[in-house]
Amino acid sequence: RSLISQGLSGFRGTVTDHPNFDANSDAEALYNAMKGFGSDKEAILDLVTSRNNAQRQEIRSAYKSLYGKDLIADLKYELTGKFERLIASLMLPPAYHDAKEIKDAIKGAGTDEKCLIEILASRTNEQIHSLVEAYKDAYGRDVEQDVIGDTSGHFKKMLIVLLQGTREEDGVVHADLVEEDAQALYAAGEEQWGTDEAIFIMLLGNRSVTHLQLVFDEYQKITEKSIEDSIKSELSGDFERLMLAVVQCIRSRAMFFARRLYKSMKGLGTADNTLIRIMISRSEIDMLDIRECFRLRYDKSLHNMIEDDTSGEYKRTLLKLCGGDDDVAGEFFPEAAQIAYKMWEISAMSKVQLRGTVHPYAEFDPGSDAQDLRKAMKGFGTDEDTIIDIIARRSNDQRQVIRQAFKSLLGRDLMADLKSELSKNLCRLILGLMMTPPEFDAKMMRKAMEGAGTDEHALIEILVTRSNQDIQAMCEAYQEAYKKSLEDAIHSDTSGHFCRILVSLAQGGREEGPADLDKAVQDAQVSEEFPNVVWTMMDKFMSILCTRSFPHLRRVFQEFVRCTNKDIELIIKKEMSGDVKNVMLAIVRSVKNQPSYFADRLYKAMKGLGTDDRALIRIMVSRSEIDLFNIRKEFKETHDASLHDFIQVEALVVSVPLLSSAAASGPPFQGCVKVHEEHPKLQVHELIVHRG
């Protein structure tokens, strides 16, 4: 049943040529829709979106012949806002639309680098050549010279290479150069101090898509890193973003555009220019594949996101171009199946170097630190800055030595003193940093289960992401602190299959080591059966998720795509519910990419009204010496904003209600900035985020 091995063929757009097309009749219909007082917007959008671009050009010619007027000029006069931009852009030939977007990106004071990147990284040779000619015809200028005048450095050089439209055609593979090219990329980046950008530009700007896909696979074998991870570590700024876009388009243009569409609509406000540009430019090429990739990556359909994020005739036109809704857990089309399979393959092959942001302090003096901390807490008031500076700049092992020195030198309990001097979230955060990791995890588990409600998300996060050794140490710390086993506490506070999964994870008995390929196929077949016979197969499926090693599970989920043409994550979403669904999804997402899982947890902790401070503190403390650097990278990649900026905004929002009447009575912005600067939670989080 698998579609993975099938080649893509046939038309993959959503806008097709209209049968029984009559350019004169359509021109007359548009004229009548704009005649008199007001315009019939529904008639206009229905007609324009149900004709392909070639037919629209015939309608433009017929309109001028019949009425002696320019159709686009009339549409711009009659329509307004985003709807006008969308309809007018649909009437342009593709090359002229691209040329206009490039022109708009570089005119005026600033440059829209993201627009330049999107267009030049994603277009074929033929499309680039047409764009260059259209730009010359429309503006009487050379697009290359305009780009040179508006950009600089390696970013400019790569844009100029792409503007030549000389990439080798798809299917051209130099078999004898695949390994050599992979080695050249490695030698130009990871292997040496500094980066030879010219090698990256030459190879990524000229080799065929098919050839580079093989090079990327070979690169992964050599370095045990994806080419994307190497680009992120070796390059920076607009040049990094351009090269990542080129790689993403080589892997899958459809997935590249799915990401761009998602980023154009998520969060507050919509990047309408991006949304319009992509929906128009891909509607007759690969919109079906983009829709598939969108639901694969974001667990919702493109149709639904457009529906939620736009309104009026603008929304209806975009939905016409989208072409329909998708069942989130339905079978993949070939392109998306290939991508899902490849995603798991890359995940299985990659050995990501995890990096924390807090490291041992080079000039560590525990006695001096203990004295400085005592001094910061003596007398009237507390010197929070000194406390933050010392504790956030020492590793956990060093903090334990400070605790002991504080008691030996001063005869006092540092934790008790900190607790009495600090308050609220700053107190929780500093005390969390001063605990050993097992003590902190045990306390977080206890907090998640005490009182009336249960924080199931906290239980899931901790038990899914900790190693066997971490879990065993946490269980010992829990028993020591609360005179009760963690397993008994879980039994008391949860029930059913959710309880059984948590208890299984709390044993700290997950297998370790590489994947067993034969067993992975068998496990994939069990996984294939479980949604159809939920209760008879649930135990086996739970056992696989809770006991197999992460490398093995990556192979299982990859085989699952091959066997079923579906993604395990989407199946769990459709078939399961409640806490069982949440814990299973957490396991799958951690197996796929654990830093990305934590980045998503941090985003959810801070988005919307109010901040989940416990979750924010728990993740920042527990990951600061393990993989917070990687989490930062994933956060930026997914949300187009740095974790640092998000924490700044959230600290500011949390602080606004704390403004004194004096501050509130002054200029609002000044008052907010004052609290922002003095907010201790922000300061310590910034230190943790930025160390290293």
UniProtKB/TrEMBL annotation:
Pfam families listed in its UniProt record: Annexin
Sequence similarity: Belongs to the annexin family.
Gene Ontology CC: melanosome; mitochondrion; nucleus; plasma membrane; vesicle membrane
Lineage: Eukaryota, Metazoa, Chordata, Craniata, Vertebrata
Function: May associate with CD21. May regulate the release of Ca(2+) from intracellular stores.
Biological process, per Gene Ontology: apoptotic signaling pathway; calcium ion transport; mitochondrial calcium ion homeostasis; negative regulation of sequestering of calcium ion
Alphabetical list of SUPFAM superfamilies matching this protein: Annexin (SSF47874)
Keyword Calcium annotated: yes
PROSITE patterns attached to this UniProt entry: ANNEXIN_1, ANNEXIN_2
UniProt KW keywords: Annexin, Calcium, Calcium/phospholipid-binding, Cytoplasm, Repeat
Cleaved signal peptide residues: none
Subcellular location: Cytoplasm; Melanosome
UniProt keyword Repeat, yes or no: yes
Note on domains (UniProt): A pair of annexin repeats may form one binding site for calcium and phospholipid.
Record-level Gene Ontology MF annotations: calcium ion binding; calcium-dependent phospholipid binding; phosphatidylserine binding
PANTHER family assigned to the protein according to its UniProt record, in alphabetical order: ANNEXIN (PTHR10502), ANNEXIN A6 (PTHR10502:SF19)
Protein name: Annexin
